Amino acid sequence: MDRKFLCAVLLMTALSGCSRIIEDVPPVDDNSANSRFDTVIDNSRYVFSTFTEKEQEYYELVKKAAENGEHGVIFPEKLEPEELKKLFMAVYYQEEHIFWLASYFEKPAAASDRLRLFYRFEDRDLDAMRKEVRERVEEIFEKIDDDATDYEKMRVFHDEIVLGCTFGDDEESARTLYGALVDGQAQCVGYSKAFDYLCSLADINCMTVMGYNTTGATHSWNIAELDGKWYHVDCTWDDPILDPPDTEFDRHYYFLANDSDILGVTHMLDERYYTWPACQAEDNYYTREGLMLSVATDAENVLSKQAVRKLSEDRKCIEVRFDDKRSYDVANTLLFETGGMKNVLRYANAHSDKKVLETTYVRYLNPDEFIIHVEMIYAKET
Questions:
Q1: pTM as predicted
Q2: What angle do CA 5, 6, 8 make, to 5 degrees?
Q3: Quick check: helix, strand or coil at residue 180?
Q4: What is the dihedral of CA 10, 11, 16, 20, to 10 degrees?
Q5: Using CB atoms within 10 A of its CB, is residue 222 exposed (0-12), middle (13-18) or buried (19+)?
Q6: Which domains does the chain have, with CATH numbers?
Q7: What residues contact 3, with CB distance under 8 A and at least 6 apart?
Q8: Of the residues 7, 141, 153, 241, which has the maximum number of CB atoms within 10 A of its CB?
Q9: What is the pLDDT of residues 266-298, one digit of tens each?
């Protein structure tokens, strides 16, 4: 392949925003032959499966060129600019392990058989960066029990990303899984690629999706398959922008959400190039954790027991969700106007080694999903 071809007149654009196949990378050392990174998973990705046979063939050309650091791809025929963009965006977003691929897309003025590729990092730095990614991933997987369910694995992936990363764009790596997993700073596409990558290593079907928020700004998050059902996962929006970052602050508003929770409410899918699976399951994080309530008076008891458990895990956030607005409103009154929250914190202090303030806390409310979320504050040691 000609690595230095010249293209016709091109319009430079950048993909903004705020795999089932695992990269065959060199081992970290002589003892890493059995690393999970040497396992190749069948490329049965959802987006890839929606392509025609020809598109799949050309997708593979782009992917392999990017993996090898080639400066471009020459196709057997000329493709329209939008066809080229569709292929490039699919590889850029879905092959998250190619974290060195830059988001720049040169749009030709007319049909072309050429696609140029650009890279974020120097070749000489990649081996060290891959090693850092592997070490961080192994650290995450060590926190997962051997008999863990896919749900439990996904919960660990979500929490590790949320607790270990903060939103920012100061580094070139911010739009990559390297930024989210190693640098601890990323934009939304970095968060989503990191979650996608961890799921792929656990043989969980996941994809990075493209869309917009309510202001029209581009946004990326994930759609993942669990027990034969599809769910939305948005690690970025579950990670508050705190200064300094708080490694004990967690929340799960957008972990295993369905279409009715977020689509048209907070998230809008970009369907210009791809179709996405429907996410209609009701068994979200709150249901699976016993935190989905229909009776307002249950909130105090559920939050009290959760507070003890979270403090034992070095976490200080507790949350419940209601299945209707009336119960949500009544629970807010009971907890924050008639002393229920004070009882929760008093119970936590009576049953936990860690002590928290009983009259001071931070309350967060999500009226779109009827979620009550409270950050406990540690009492100062005397």
A1: 0.86
A2: 140
A3: helix
A4: -30
A5: buried
A6: 10-116 (no CATH), 124-283 (3.10.620), 290-378 (no CATH)
A7: 70, 71, 72
A8: 153
A9: 999 999 999 899 999 999 999 999 999 999 999
